[in-house]
């Protein structure tokens, strides 16, 4: 049974990573001339990385409301896939209101750590990991606003790679254990690199490219390497891969 | 942008972030029995996360050379099953050191 304590512990590395990214976010927002309270309010209400960075540009360029809706939705469509994937790993009897609370905290990094768990995810575990990471995200934002431009540019440049490195730490160990997972990853990387540099497709934007690469690679993976289904408890074999 | 419009934009953003996260979790409550779909959902996280990282990781730092160096260290340590934080910190340190070296030889 996954406890609150375990969730909170698993959230610590995420919170530390968030601290630096949110710090950069807070600083950038102030540099771009946003009112001081707005990056903090963004972090409290949105709790997402890419979308908030895009939000800085939208606000500072005085974007239209439909442009805001479209940009943020495209960036966030991947969450539909992640939430769908997460829904298969929750304990079976979890009530709707608890699912609605958890949904707020289904960030890329929390999702990444959750899929590493072998057991069904409980509400307590999810609250632990979300509260921990959420604290780091908001603390980082406030510190970034306060310290804006106090951190030398050379340190900021080095922090840019932190979250990407964490994603690598999430996907590589399972790829060592499972050849199909390795092939899905390699295919997705290949597609993503091709799409990012092919002029016509690159203009789709990163949000769509992630979705296309994710569905194509996982779709082909599922076609060529279907996982054995057990009727009693499909969660067992999901855990075997995750 | 006026304070009112900033508040409106932030509210719209919050809604456009929460709904894609919430609707599948709230509406989709059954276990999927279909073998193809359940396999796809198992592989999906890896496909999505991989596409998020590459190729963007290479341009996440001040120079593509330091980006590649940091990526290489992250891949190596992740392959040796180090945790999230050691991998992230090592990648950052590698990037920082590489960029100082690049400055010394005048590339950066």
| SSE ordering of chain A | HHHHHHHHHHHHHH
Q: Estimate the helix proportion of chain B, in percent.
A: over 70%
The radius of gyration computed from the alpha-carbon positions of chain A, rounded to a whole number of angstroms, is: 19 Å
**Count of the separate structural domains of chain A:** 2
Put simply, the count of helices of chain B is 4
End-to-end separation of chain A = 17 Å
Low-confidence stretches of chain A: 230-242
Structural class of chain B, please?
Answer: mainly alpha
As an assembly, this protein is heterodimer
Biggest interface: A-B, 113 and 77 residues
Overall geometry of chain B comes to flat
Average pLDDT of chain B, to the nearest integer?
91
Major sheet of chain B, described briefly?
none
Which terms would index this structure?
heterodimer, A: 242 residues, mainly alpha, 2 domains, 77% helix, globular, disordered C terminus, B: 108 residues, flat
Topology:
The complex is a heterodimer of chains A (242) and B (108).
Chain A: H1 4-31, H2 37-46, H3 49-60, H4 65-76, H5 78-87, H6 96-104, H7 108-114, H8 123-147, H9 153-159, H10 162-177, H11 179-197, H12 199-202, H13 206-224, H14 234-241
Chain B: H1 3-27, H2 35-53, H3 64-79, H4 84-104
Helix pairs in contact in B: 3-4
Brief write-up:
The complex is a heterodimer of chains A (242) and B (108). Helices cover 77% and strands 0% of the residues of chain A.
Walkthrough of the structure:
The complex is a heterodimer of chains A (242) and B (108). Chain A is mostly helical and 242 residues long. Chain A has 2 domains: 4-162, no CATH class; 178-242, no CATH class. Chain A is globular, with a radius of gyration of 19 Å. The model of chain A is unreliable at 230-242 (pLDDT under 50). Chain A contains 14 helices and no strands. Chain B is an all-alpha fold. The radius of gyration of chain B is 21 Å and the shape is flat.
């Amino acid at each position: 049974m996954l406890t609150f304590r375990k969730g909170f512990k698993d959230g610590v590395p995420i919170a530390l990573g968030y601290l630096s990214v949110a710090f950069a976010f807070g600083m950038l927002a102030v540099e771009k001339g946003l009112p001081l309270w707005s990056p903090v309010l963004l972090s409290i209400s949105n709790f997402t990385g890419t979308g908030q960075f895009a939000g800085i540009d939208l606000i500072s360029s005085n974007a239209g409301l439909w442009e805001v809706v479209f940009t943020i939705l495209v960036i966030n469509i991947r969450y539909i896939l992640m939430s769908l994937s997460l829904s298969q790993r929750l304990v079976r009897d979890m009530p709707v209101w608890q699912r609605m609370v958890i949904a707020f905290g289904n960030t890329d990094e929390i999702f990444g750590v959750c899929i590493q768990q072998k057991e069904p995810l409980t509400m307590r575990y999810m609250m632990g990991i979300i509260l921990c990471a959420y604290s780091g995200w908001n603390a980082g934002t406030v510190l970034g606003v306060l310290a804006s431009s106090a951190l030398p540019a050379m340190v900021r440049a080095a922090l840019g790679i932190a979250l990407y490195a964490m994603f690598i730490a999430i996907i590589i160990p399972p790829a060592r254990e499972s050849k199909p997972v390795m092939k899905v990853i390699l295919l997705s990387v290949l597609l993503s690199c091709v799409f990012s540099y092919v002029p016509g497709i690159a203009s789709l934007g990163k949000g769509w490219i992630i979705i296309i690469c994710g569905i194509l690679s996982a779709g082909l993976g599922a076609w060529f390497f279907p996982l054995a289904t057990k009727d009693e408890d499909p969660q067992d074999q999901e855990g075997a891969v995750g | 942008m006026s304070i009112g419009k900033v508040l409106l934009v932030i509210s719209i953003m919050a809604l456009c972030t929460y709904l894609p996260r919430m609707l599948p979790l709230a509406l989709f409550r059954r276990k999927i029995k279909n073998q193809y779909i359940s396999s796809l959902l198992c592989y999906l996280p890896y496909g999505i996360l991989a596409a998020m990282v590459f190729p963007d990781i290479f341009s996440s730092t001040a120079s593509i050379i330091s980006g590649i160096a940091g990526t290489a260290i992250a891949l190596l340590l992740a392959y040796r099953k180090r945790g999230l934080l050691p991998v992230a910190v090592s990648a950052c340190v590698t990037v920082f050191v590489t960029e100082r070296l690049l400055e010394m030889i005048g590339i950066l």
